[in-house]
Amino acid sequence: MIRTRTDDRVRVVTIDRPARRNALRPDDLDALRSAIADAETPVTYLRGAGNAFCAGADLDVVAGLAGGAGPDGDETADAASFARRGQRAAAALADADTVVVCGIDGAARGGGVELALAADVRVATPAATFAEPGVEFGLFGAWGGTIRLPRVMREGDALDFALSGRVLDADEALRTGLVSRVVDDPRAVADEISSGEPDAIRAVKRRVRDRRDDAAQADAEAEAFAALVRAHGAEIAASRTE
C-alpha cells in the first residue's frame, strides 16, 4: 500500500506494509509510480513505514512467477513483466520533475536498494542497513540496479556489494557513496532542500540527470541558466543589495 500526503512544499510518499517490511507487489509498484509522477511539489520525500525502508519485491509474488505465469495463470504477469514494472517505478523517481529525497531508516533490501538508487538524494539514519541478498538464492536486482549501482558507487564497491550479498551499515553506505548523509531525521533534509527556489531545484535535477553527450548537456545547461535569469531577474538584482 502506498500512502501520500502533502506538507507545504514536500510531498510525503510512504510505502506502508510494515508487516512484510514494506515488500512490494505489482500493484504497489504501479501505485508508487503514480504517486511520484503526480507530485506537484518541488520535493518528494520517500520513506517506509515501521522499522524498515523496503524489503524489495514480495518474494511470494516472485515464487509464484517461477513457472512463467502470474497468479491465476495470468501470462502477462511473468517474471520479466514484474521486473519491468519495478524498472518503471524506479524510473519514475529518477525522471520526475520533483526532486526525490529517500529517507532510509532500517532495512533496505534488494528492490528497496534499487528504489533508493533511483532517488536524487539518499539519506540514512544510523539504524539503516543495505543489502542485495538475491544472489544468495539465485537472483539479482532487476529494477535498474545493475545500471545505477556503478553510477552511485565505484565499480569495485558496487560489484563487491552486489556479488557478496553482505549487509552494509549506515557508515559504510556513507563511505561508499550509497548515501550522502547519515542523520537522525532524514525528513529534515527534504525540508532543507525544499527551502530553495522551486524552478532552480527542478533545473538542477534535470541538468545533473541529463545523460546526453557533453556538448548537448552544456547547451542545455546554458539555456536553463538563461531561463532562470529571465524568470528571476528582480530577485537576483535585489540580492545584490543584501
UniProtKB/TrEMBL annotation:
Organism, as annotated: Halorubrum yunnanense
Regarding protein family, the annotation reads:
Belongs to the enoyl-CoA hydratase/isomerase family.
Q: Name one matching Pfam family.
A: ECH_1
Q: Which Gene3D superfamilies match?
A: 2-enoyl-CoA Hydratase, Chain A, domain 1
Q: Per its UniProt record, what InterPro entries does this chain match?
A: ClpP/crotonase-like_dom_sf (IPR029045), Enoyl-CoA_hydra/iso (IPR001753)
Q: What is this protein called?
A: Enoyl-CoA hydratase/isomerase family protein
The protein's matches in SUPFAM superfamilies, at most eight in alphabetical order, are given as: ClpP/crotonase
Species lineage: Archaea, Methanobacteriati, Methanobacteriota, Stenosarchaea group, Halobacteria
The protein's superkingdom reads Archaea
Entry-linked CDD domains: crotonase-like
